[in-house]
Amino acid sequence: MTIRDIAKAVGVTHTTVSNVINGKTNKVSQETIDKVNKAIKEFGYIPNKNARALANNSSKIIGIIFPEASGNFMQDPFHSQILTGIESVISSNNYYLMVKSIKKYEDIYQLMTNWSVDGFIILSLVGHQLPKLEKFKDVPVVFIDTYYDELKHINVGSNDYQGEFNAASHLLDNGHKSLGFISYPIDYPSVLSMRLKGFKDALNQKNISFNSSENILEIGKFNPNDTRITNKILNFVKNKTGICFSADILAIEVMEFLKNNGYSIPNDISIVGFDNLYLSTLVTPKLTTINQDIVKKGNIAAESLINMIEQHKEEQLNIKISTNLVIRESVRTLL
């Protein structure tokens, strides 16, 4: 069954049938629309999306690129929320997703060459690892959470600096003077380096000295059975009353470990996360954290990319989503 067969059965032109299928019905009567849709249903006609895409010189596929981390990257609640925001916009605009994690950043260029996609959304690249930005000139690309002064593409991020500044300030305002910052490994420039800068500046504003070896602990994937990591954590927190974490998931993992090792939170140590994941409301005590609207970040990235693909409009290059402190139960007042 073809469009021409449907047109013949209804008694209209094949162009009219095509317009109804593609939603271009401003010049088609409702009676004709109903007849065409009835015939499509009766004959079981299924439009050939590949043929339509080829005719429009479009694959209708958007590539979503995640940096590969240890374990399944989709187990990270941050990634799943970003993908939720992207997918809702992509699907409502009749596009499809190709999701790919990469081990090294050069893999992006291979994907661009070997896959027919209309555009890419690329997450969390570290600026110095993008030396060949000119290769992106022939395909629409939107970045998420990428800090790089020479990036001349749209980047959708959060106000990471202000968020972590507010997190540390909340501890300081509640009488905490001995603070630490626990983070995944920090690259420069990156989301985590901006959060660290916010933490340092909050201490400096209160005239509290900062020393990297005393105030920063970087750890990879947390494993409570890895004594090398757990001993570092126990040694790091023993002289501190408050800890800022670069991410909620890390805060929650370490918080549970500390509780299992005799710490009472917030009585013995206060904790502030970053992200405001749903999990932060399920732990005990509920986690005080910095809210960034992760789903909205995905929405904006997808909307910006589709706008580039379909309308070829210039967009604001650096889009920042505001952050705010969410006070729950994991911080004790010492005043």
Distance between the termini: 77 Å
Order of H and E elements: HHHHEHEHEEEHEHHEHEHEEHEE
Whole-number total of structural domains: 3
Report the top-level CATH class of the largest domain.
Answer: Alpha Beta
Q: What proportion strand?
A: 15-25%
Percent helix = 40-55%
State the CATH superfamily name of the largest domain. Response regulator
Q: Can you give a write-up of this model?
A:
The chain is 41% helix and 16% strand. The protein is of the alpha/beta class and 335 residues long. The chain folds into 3 domains: 3-47, 434 Repressor (Amino-terminal Domain); 61-158 and 295-320, Response regulator (Rossmann fold), CATH 3.40.50; 160-292, Response regulator (Rossmann fold). The protein has a 6-stranded parallel β-sheet with strand order 2-1-3-4-5-11, covered by helices on one side. The chain has a 4-stranded parallel β-sheet with strand order 7-6-8-9, sandwiched between helices. Strands 10-12 form a two-stranded antiparallel sheet. The longest helix has 18 residues, at 294-311. The N and C termini lie far apart (77 Å).
In terms of topology, how is this protein built?
Blueprint: H1 3-10, H2 14-21, H3 30-43, H4 49-55, E1 61-67, H5 77-92, E2 96-102, H6 107-114, E3 119-123, E4 141-144, E5 154-158, H7 160-173, E6 179-183, H8 191-205, H9 212-215, E7 216-218, H10 227-237, E8 242-245, H11 248-260, E9 270-272, E10 289-292, H12 294-311, E11 318-321, E12 323-326
Parallel strand pairs: 1-2, 1-3, 3-4, 4-5, 5-11, 6-7, 6-8, 8-9
Antiparallel strand pairs: 10-12
